[in-house]
Amino acid sequence: MIMMMEKICSQIDFYFSDFNLHHDRYMRSFITTENSLVPVDILLKFNLINQLLENESINNLIDVFKQYQFENVRFIAEKQSFQRINAFVYDKSGYMKSMMDSIVHVSRLPSTVSATMVDLIKWISNLFDNGENGLYGINVCKRSKENGNSIRSALIVLKNGDYIQVLQEKIQSFDNDIRIVPYRDYIRYKNKLRMKRRQKKSMINRNIWSDGDQK
């Protein structure tokens, strides 16, 4: 029970992190001012928190909130709300550059480890030895068309770059079909795809104009 409660706290802390707020427009909508408060009730409605909470008592969870050492937020008991410790400034390009060496993109995930976000979190956490969990957070990139909950690819955010090699080795030994690439290479690949799409669209437009001139 205690371990699950700590996972909930860790997940809430991640929701308020710079990384998540740069990607999560819905969560960002609650952080409109430096002193914005986000009620616990809102966070408890999140699917992942619900899955982690299962049948645990909310009162017990509130007690854990009061003791837990959050990095990004503080729990204000009298208002039953969370508040970011530092003001959030939106600068996605600059922030992602600063985090470049702590992120990997994982794809071709089998449903046995990624049927739900909870499954994926547990699987990645268990890949680390000696109870030292290098996982900081997960940002879903693509879900299965057949099963909307199953995750096919995601950005895995680690606590620091030292964990990347460990994670790569563990994943490759677990399943060679899973593809894991550094975030730099993933961004390079995505930019190439965008460039190809633009070139293709430009060629189609030129052909349309050319056909129109002939008429």
From TrEMBL:
<dbReference type="InterPro" id="IPR002344">
    <property type="entry name" value="Lupus_La"/>
</dbReference>
<dbReference type="InterPro" id="IPR036390">
    <property type="entry name" value="WH_DNA-bd_sf"/>
</dbReference>
<dbReference type="GO" id="GO:1990904">
    <property type="term" value="C:ribonucleoprotein complex"/>
</dbReference>
<protein>
    <recommendedName>
        <fullName>HTH La-type RNA-binding domain-containing protein</fullName>
    </recommendedName>
</protein>
<feature type="domain" description="HTH La-type RNA-binding">
    <location>
        <begin position="1"/>
        <end position="92"/>
    </location>
</feature>
<dbReference type="InterPro" id="IPR036388">
    <property type="entry name" value="WH-like_DNA-bd_sf"/>
</dbReference>
<dbReference type="InterPro" id="IPR006630">
    <property type="entry name" value="La_HTH"/>
</dbReference>
<dbReference type="GO" id="GO:0003723">
    <property type="term" value="F:RNA binding"/>
</dbReference>
<dbReference type="Pfam" id="PF05383">
    <property type="entry name" value="La"/>
</dbReference>
<dbReference type="GO" id="GO:0005634">
    <property type="term" value="C:nucleus"/>
</dbReference>
<dbReference type="GO" id="GO:0006396">
    <property type="term" value="P:RNA processing"/>
</dbReference>
<keyword id="KW-0694">RNA-binding</keyword>
